[in-house]
Write a structure and sequence with these properties.
Helices cover 39% and strands 9% of the residues. It has helices at 7-40, 45-49, 56-72, 83-93, 162-175, 188-192, 217-224, 255-261, 281-295, and strands spanning 134-136, 144-146, 178-180, 196-201, 229-234, 246-248, 269-271. The strands form 3 sheets. The chain has a 3-stranded parallel β-sheet with strand order 3-4-5. A two-stranded antiparallel sheet has the order 1-2. Strands 6-7 form a two-stranded antiparallel ribbon. Helix 6 (188-192) links the parallel strand 3 (178-180) and strand 4 (196-201). The structure holds flavin mononucleotide.
Length: 296
């Protein structure tokens, strides 16, 4: 055959054949190594019983998340926000039409879900006028007036990242609502967006603590001196971890987070199950009175 083909074609064929043989050889080698690894290990029964191909299960399990999302999940099925809700938010955020047409894609049949009652005197727009607002702490030095019904609940800087805090604080300003800092203290990113801020005093008193972990009047005053900080919230315990305290693992305690929270860098930080200095209703009232007196 080599006499019939030009030299360069023979070279290409030779290289291609070698590559193929080499590729096949490598593949056989890799499969053999995986086979030996699988049949000798004792941690995964599937890999031991079905060496090599058993590994596909983990691949499909991983891919399944994406397949389900695009092909199988119904519009109102996912948690915490389903596709229908996410698309509405997406449309609203892009200022494209977010009006919802009549008719429901919800299942209205199960009892108790939705109850239609005929109304002889339907609500007019003026009846549903926005709230007139409330004054919180009218007896304080600096009461806070707000008409915002929806606000941003606490998520600590450290639990969420700088871009997330920035996005939320910008959103708070644009929506005219307040943002709760969560127990992780006040970061520059909370202030950067310009929205109103509620400073949360958690059980570890991050951001307003002395070196020994006790509440510091001086720190409280520093935080209150920011115009944007409108209120202080005293979080009594760890609602998301009932009966347990919280822990910020050492790996997450960067120099920035340590400085904002007032704790040591790269050391586990414990947020106790309750305030160590609030053991009764009397203690609680004393604490509220103290925070109010110091911060206004
Ligand atoms: C990442 C993260 C951090 C949180 N940090 C705090 C916190 O520091 N203080 C607090 O009171 N709640 C904290 N929460 C709880 C939220 O404020 C909220 O109450 C909770 O997520 C339930 O609301 P949802 O169902 O809308 O998520 C946190 C929640 C998340 C997801």
């Amino acid at each position: 055959m080599s006499e019939m083909l030009p030299d360069f074609a023979v070279s290409i064929l030779t290289i291609a054949t070698s590559l193929f043989v080499f590729g096949l050889g490598s593949a056989v080698l890799v499969v053999s190594v995986l086979y030996v690894l699988d049949v000798t290990q004792t941690r995964h029964a599937i890999r031991r019983n079905y060496p090599v191909i058993g590994r596909l299960r983990y691949v499909f399990e991983h891919l399944g998340t994406f397949f389900r999302q695009y092909f199988f999940a119904m519009d109102r099925e996912e948690m915490p926000f389903n596709r229908e809700q996410r698309s509405w938010v997406d449309r609203a955020s892009k200022n494209v039409d977010s009006t919802v047409a009549f008719g429901s894609t919800r299942d209205l049949k199960p009892r108790g879900t939705v109850l239609f009652v005929n109304c002889p005197f339907p609500t007019l727009e003026q009846d549903a006028a926005p709230t007139q607002g409330v004054t919180i702490g009218p007896a304080c030095r600096t009461p806070y007036r707000t008409d915002s019904l929806f606000n941003i609940s606490g998520m600590s800087f450290g639990a969420i990242s700088k871009p997330a805090v920035l996005a939320l604080s910008n959103g708070a300003r644009m929506a005219g609502c307040w943002m709760n800092t969560g127990e992780g203290g006040l970061s520059p990113y909370h202030l950067e967006g310009g929205g109103d801020i509620v400073f949360q005093i958690g059980t570890a008193k991050y951001g307003v603590r002395n070196r020994d972990g006790n509440l510091s009047d001086e720190k409280l005053r520093e935080i209150a001196a920011h115009d944007q900080v409108k209120m202080f919230e005293l979080k009594m315990s760890q609602g998301a971890k009932p009966g347990k305290g919280g822990i910020l693992p050492s790996g997450k305690v960067t120099p920035e987070i340590a400085a904002i929270r007032g704790i040591d860098v790269a050391r586990d930080s414990i947020s106790p199950n309750r305030h160590v200095d609030i053991n009764s209703a009397d203690d609680l009232l004393d604490m509220i009175e103290r925070v109010r007196r110091v911060t206004g």
